[in-house]
Amino acid sequence: MKLICIGRNYTDHIKELENEKPTDPVVFIKSDNAILLKKQPFFIPDFSNEIHYELEVLVKINKLGKHIDKKFAHKYYDQLSVGIDFTARDLQKKLKDKGLPWEKAKSFDGAAVVGQWIDKSEVAHVDNLNFRLEKNETVVQTANTNLMLWKIDELIEYVSKYFTLKIGDIIFTGTPAGVGKVVANDKLKGFLEDKELFSITVK
Q: Is pTM, for the whole model, over 0.85?
């Protein structure tokens, strides 16, 4: 199983990090060791002083596919969730400044929170989903998938040009504005259409 992550998919997040707007989706991979085990807290790693949360809508692939046309992409997933792409922002900046890969900043142990899955049939349309992150009962990120630069089916088409999508693969579809630092004892809750799909504590 692989975690395929999309960067810079919301204009407001691109602006807040002062990044350049891409002409194609930015794609990177998290390995399966990054998945935070269920009912476990997130432990801030000792190699970073600036771990940021990034809330994202997740899609679970349910069918083997490659070179998937956008019009058929909806057949390759039937479950959705929300999760967090934890990022060691200070380490990521150092790596980016040197033109080096991001894996140490993005794919460390516990860096991927995967919420409870819901069936796609429970939502009206995947391109019009409200989602939000609460930190200590305060909303810190909120958005709608209609703000994505590349929608879910477009992402599946694009990603499947390069990687064979396998059953169980998860696509992290990008984060909106509002990313920020976590500290010990923070409590994070993720919602999709007002359904709480994860709750974790930071240690």
A: yes
Count of C-beta atoms within a 10 Å radius of residue 201? 12
Question: What's the CATH number of domain 3-201, 3.90.850.10, 1.20.1250.20, 3.60.20.10, 3.40.50.300?
Answer: 3.90.850.10
Length of the chain: 203
pLDDT tens digits for 113-147?
999 999 999 999 999 999 999 999 999 999 999 99
Place of tokens 């810079």: 8
Contacts of 145 (CB under 8 A, 6+ apart): 57, 126, 127, 128, 129, 131, 151, 152, 173
Q: What is the DSSP letter of 23?
A: S
